[in-house]
């Protein structure tokens, strides 16, 4: 018998297109969320607006819908006085995405973003505390019905590891996707290089490793090359580029990379060995529709 290692995410994705969804925060602001307000509170107060955006992404061809829970850990919710509602906010976010995903045959990725707290010795957060914060968030997400765990926009490997450990403790059967944001000279803000991220996140237990957000498609191409070269065998690579850096036009910031350009970029990433693509800030369902068409053509 030869041992065939199967990637849990690949098994779950099955014959769906390898396409995640795009940005949420900036679109929610366009749809009435005041800047600085708590996006996750809309899971409880404006669920139909979150569901509408999920529905648009699923209709555009996204196979994985990202729950509106990026800031769903207690320290982030505490900025809005909601630290006692971690379970409810996350369960509602997952349930909204679940209902939409089931109508489209899509999957739900339970989104974990950074806690916003600094680890020791720069801050006071310990790995055990961080894991506990992510576990509380995940209990809500699992109760709401997620299919996989999506850890994203991480800068600190210790925090990413804590999130992966939380997933392995709370929902050991769910695939884990972990991406970092390499937005500072091709490193994360904390100095992590793509190759080290690929190795360390995989070693911690991620089924899919990668990069999200960042400084736009050009840098993402360089980062993707390094991720693909370094990833261990059997581990998939995901990239979710933003639509460039926002440029000031008149009185407002606008993202300048349109759907077709981001789609051509996604196809070049796939040609370079990236397994799964999505998009981040500045992208919309139109971008995802173009990406879906480009990578499944
Ligand atoms: Zn982003």
From TrEMBL:
Tell me yes or no: is Thylakoid among this UniProt entry's keywords: no
PROSITE patterns, per database record: HCY
Residues that bind Zn(2+): 213, 280-281
On the tree of life, the source organism's domain of life is Bacteria
Hcy-binding domain sequence ranges: 6-295
InterPro entries of this UniProt entry? BHMT-like, HCY_dom, HCY_dom_sf
The alphabetized UniProt keywords are: Metal-binding, Methyltransferase, Transferase, Zinc
The GO biological-process annotations, alphabetized, read as: methionine biosynthetic process; methylation
* Protein's name in the database: Hcy-binding domain-containing protein
Organism equals Kineosphaera limosa NBRC 100340
């Amino acid at each position: 018998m030869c041992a065939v290692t199967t990637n849990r995410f690949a098994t779950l994705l099955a014959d769906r297109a390898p396409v995640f969804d795009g940005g949420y925060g900036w679109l929610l602001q366009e749809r009435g969320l005041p800047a600085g307000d708590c996006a996750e509170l809309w899971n409880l107060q404006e669920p139909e607006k979150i569901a509408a955006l999920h529905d648009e992404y699923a209709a555009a061809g996204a196979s994985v819908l990202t729950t509106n829970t990026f800031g769903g850990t207690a320290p982030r919710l505490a900025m809005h006085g909601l630290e006692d509602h971690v379970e409810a906010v996350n369960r509602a976010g997952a349930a909204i995405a679940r209902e939409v995903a089931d109508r489209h045959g899509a999957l739900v990725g339970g989104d974990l973003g950074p806690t916003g707290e600094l680890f020791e010795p720069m801050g006071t957060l310990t790995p055990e505390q961080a894991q506990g914060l992510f576990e509380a968030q995940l209990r809500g997400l699992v109760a709401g019905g997620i299919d996989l765990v999506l850890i994203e926009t991480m800068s600190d490997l210790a925090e990413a590891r804590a999130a992966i450990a939380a997933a392995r403790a709370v929902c050991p059967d769910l695939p884990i996707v972990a991406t970092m944001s390499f937005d500072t000279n091709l490193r994360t803000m904390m100095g992590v290089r793509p190759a080290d991220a690929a190795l360390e996140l995989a070693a911690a237990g991620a089924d899919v490793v990668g990069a999200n957000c960042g400084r736009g498609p050009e840098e993402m191409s360089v980062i993707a090359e390094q991720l693909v070269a370094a990833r261990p065998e059997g581990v998939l690579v995901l990239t979710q580029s933003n639509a460039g850096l926002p440029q000031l036009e008149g009185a407002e910031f606008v993202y300048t990379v349109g759907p077709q350009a981001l789609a051509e970029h996604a196809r070049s990433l796939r040609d370079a060995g990236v397994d799964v693509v999505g998009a981040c800030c500045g992208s919309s369902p139109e971008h995802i529709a173009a990406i879906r068409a480009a990578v499944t053509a």
